[in-house]
Design brief:
The complex is a heterodimer of chains A (503) and B (180).
Chain A: H1 3-14, H2 17-35, H3 41-48, H4 57-82, H5 91-102, H6 106-139, H7 144-161, H8 166-181, E1 183-184, E2 191-192, H9 206-228, H10 244-266, H11 271-286, H12 299-322, H13 328-339, H14 346-351, H15 353-374, H16 378-382, H17 389-408, H18 411-429, H19 435-458, H20 469-496
Antiparallel strand pairs in A: 1-2
Helix pairs in contact in A: 1-15, 2-4, 2-15, 3-4, 3-9, 3-13, 4-5, 4-6, 4-12, 4-13, 4-15, 5-6, 5-12, 6-10, 6-12, 6-15, 7-8, 7-19, 7-20, 8-19, 9-17, 9-18, 10-11, 10-12, 11-12, 13-19, 17-18
Chain B: H1 2-23, H2 38-63, H3 73-95, H4 97-100, H5 102-117, H6 122-143, H7 155-179
Classes of the chains: A mainly alpha (503), B mainly alpha (180).
Chain lengths: 503, 180
């Protein structure tokens, strides 16, 4: 069967009643997770993986992906109504969205983010469909050395782009790689860093780290915020629709945001957060009235929201075609793949076209479902925000316990999850980003494997990593990524002089 | 910026511990030219380099005249105690999870947490704690087939009682559906 046939067959898979149901379930739970203030997409996927045990992998992954992009939709609601973005990628939406809500245009803000998300999301999936095949074909030519360099580049990009300090990002990455080395070394059969604990022989469970750092750690941070003070919820008033004028102002930001979002999403590390910032900046710069941004400009909601969702689809590209996630949430998604014994990457397109295209095509359907969930039904979802924070956060802790215990029925693993929760809480306090560590943990095993394979092929000659043009390019890019945050501010300072200070 | 210095130092210390632990990995020289130590050694070195990089970053930040934010130690300490308390309470919860079973431990765990963080609304708190523990037990164990601890005796009989009630309820519901 040719590619077009595979893509069309994917719709057969995605339209099966059972998979439609799981798409809906994923989108539904994703929307809730996006709206819940204390929990992001990464934690949400991690907590819900245990529910899918025993399901058909295709259905399970369709549901997981639904949670992922559904959470991105839902995130805007929290930003607009209570000014507390659940995810970093919704921070930009809060700037003007919350102001719009204060001005009585909450309905319009929610509507434009739902419509913008739908349009940009659908564009993103089309682009994903078109880009996946050629990229997978290129990736098939990669040997272990190229793969190692590619992973190095991805980790370098994520380290330097997801946080304030590149050094802290690298520390987070290396710690993740170190955790990945715990357990029995598959090639030599030697136990490493297990300290005689039998539970550590199989390595530190991926879900333990994810639930610990993202769910428990996040709850601890939120509890602290909760002790300090409360956010005010703006009641949803008026019709959930846009005036003609608001709509015409939003069209171009949505198109621009969609384009920016998708390409930023494809690149590792950049991801949704940077895409939303870029989109916001672009809209502000193009606008004839830039001084009004921050007071409730609809362009400032439409652009970033579109970028956010297009980036979500863009982020699926490297995950599916290369088997290399570029963000925390896609790393958790990859962890879910691996738990089902499925290694995402170019080979998957040949071995399991039904799974890949079923998943991609289910995203078209999921986007339509999300539009319905987020427009007419948003009033229902908003009620979740009225649950007292103290109760909500307590319940998330109990759900984390269920999630971790259900993997192996082991209470030592519960304590380990708590430990990672404390680590995650501390990392947030001292500005060490979490995403690089989780990404490194997912990639660590494969990375070491390809490193050793490459060295075995070359007879322990490290020059193997600079022998092909692809590897050299990737290594140079990796070095640039690490040096960029150090060099760029200086270049800018030289160019702009003292003006730079007030930006 | 003092925190960043501490992070650098802690990273260096961790790298040293990790590199030392690496030397303790037993190796057999068979086929694999690198063995299980090579990659970890690279990681140890990478962590040292990252710690140095962070140190250099803080040097630069120290030079640029950023005013140090006035710290509020008293205020912060109270939060930290609260968070520490939650962590301890959760550790205890996990510690008796197997022994006393999911239902009882979760109910008590939630009762305490909600009465601290959702103070004064005891009726809502009691209701949520009990209903959540019961509901999640039925949902996960009975419907989704996830394993959760029933606890040792005498706690086991509590879980068993819920099991029996659920079995009756489920058969009642299904018989209604069959008739309909």
């Amino acid at each position: 069967m040719d590619t077009l046939g595979h893509i069309l067959h994917g719709f057969n898979v995605a339209l099966m009643p059972i998979n439609l149901w799981y798409t809906f379930l994923g989108c539904f739970m994703g929307t809730i997770i996006g709206i819940l203030p204390g929990i992001g997409p990464a934690a949400g996927i991690g907590l819900l993986i245990p529910i899918t045990f025993g399901m058909d992998p295709t259905s399970a992954l369709i549901m997981m992906a639904g949670i992922y992009y559904g959470a991105m939709y839902g995130g805007s609601t929290t930003s607009i109504l209570i000014n507390t973005p659940g995810e970093a990628s919704s921070v930009m939406t809060a700037l003007d969205g919350y102001q719009m809500a204060k001005n009585g245009r909450a309905g319009a803000a929610l509507a434009v983010s739902a419509i913008g998300s739908f349009l940009a999301g659908t564009f993103g999936i089309v682009a994903l469909t078109l880009l996946a095949v050629p990229l997978a074909a290129i990736a098939l030519k990669f040997g272990p050395a190229e793969y190692f360099c590619l992973m190095l580049f991805a980790l370098a990009a994520v380290s330097s782009l997801t946080g304030k300090s590149a050094a802290k990002g690298i520390i987070s990455t290396v710690l993740g790689l170190m955790v990945a080395t715990i357990g029995i070394d598959l090639q030599s059969g030697q136990p490493r860093y297990t300290m005689g604990v039998p539970e550590l022989q199989d390595g530190v469970g991926f879900l333990i780290v994810v639930v610990g750092m993202f769910a428990i750690g996040e709850v601890l941070s939120n509890l602290e915020e909760h002790i300090k003070g409360k956010a005010e919820i703006i009641r949803l008033k008026g019709r959930l629709w846009l005036t003609r004028e608001e709509w015409s102002r939003s069209v171009m930001p949505i198109i621009r945001g969609g384009l920016i979002g998708f390409f930023k999403g494809v690149l590792p590390g950049a991801g949704a957060t940077i895409a939303t910032m870029l989109s916001y900046t672009v809209e502000k710069r193009i606008s004839k009235t830039p001084e009004k941004f921050g007071t409730g400009m609809i362009e400032g909601v439409a652009g970033p929201e579109a970028a956010n969702n297009a980036a979500t689809c863009g982020a699926m590209v490297p995950l599916l075609t290369l088997g290399i996630p570029g963000s925390g949430a896609t790393a958790v998604l990859m962890g879910a793949f691996i738990m089902y014994g499925i290694q995402p990457g170019p080979l998957l397109f040949e071995k399991r076209p039904d799974l890949v295209w079923g998943l991609v095509d289910s995203m078209y359907i999921g986007n339509i479902m999300l539009l319905i969930l987020n427009l007419p039904l948003i009033g229902l979802f908003v009620r979740i925000l009225y649950i007292p924070t103290g109760i909500l956060l307590s319940l998330i802790l109990a759900i984390s316990a269920i999630g971790v215990y259900s993997i192996n029925g082991n209470t030592l693993e519960l304590q380990m999850a708590l430990m990672f929760g404390v680590v995650g809480y501390l990392f947030r306090k001292i500005d060490i980003p979490l995403a690089p560590m989780v990404l490194a943990l997912v990639l660590g095993g494969i990375m070491e494997q390809s490193f050793r394979q490459a060295m075995t092929i070359s007879g322990a000659d490290p020059m193997v990593f600079v022998r092909s043009g692809i590897s050299i390019t990737l290594l140079i890019l990796a070095v640039i990524m690490v040096l960029l945050p150090v060099v760029l501010p200086r270049l800018r300072a030289m160019k702009d002089g003292p003006e730079d200070l007030d930006s | 910026m003092i925190i960043d210095r501490i992070i650098s130092a802690a990273a260096l210390f961790l790298a040293a511990v990790y590199l030392y632990a690496t030397t303790r990995i037993p190796t057999l020289e068979i086929g694999d030219p690198l063995g299980p130590k090579a990659f970890p050694n690279l990681l140890g070195i990478a962590l040292i380099l990252a710690a140095i990089l962070l140190f250099i970053e803080t040097l630069k930040a120290g030079k640029s005249d950023q005013p140090v934010a006035p710290a509020a130690p008293r205020e912060n300490m109270r939060h930290l105690w609260m968070i520490g308390g939650v962590v301890m309470w959760t550790a205890i919860y996990f510690g008796v999870f197997d022994l006393a079973g999911y239902l009882l431990t979760t109910t008590i765990y939630l009762l305490v947490l909600t009465s601290v963080f959702n103070r004064g609304k005891w009726r809502a708190n009691v209701l949520t704690s009990v209903l959540f523990a019961l509901g999640s037990y039925v949902l996960f164990v009975k419907i989704l087939g996830v394993t959760l601890p029933k606890g040792m005796q005498p706690f086991e009989s509590l879980s068993s009682a819920v099991d029996v009630v659920w079995t009756f309820a489920a058969s009642a519901i299904s018989s209604i559906f069959r008739r309909g």
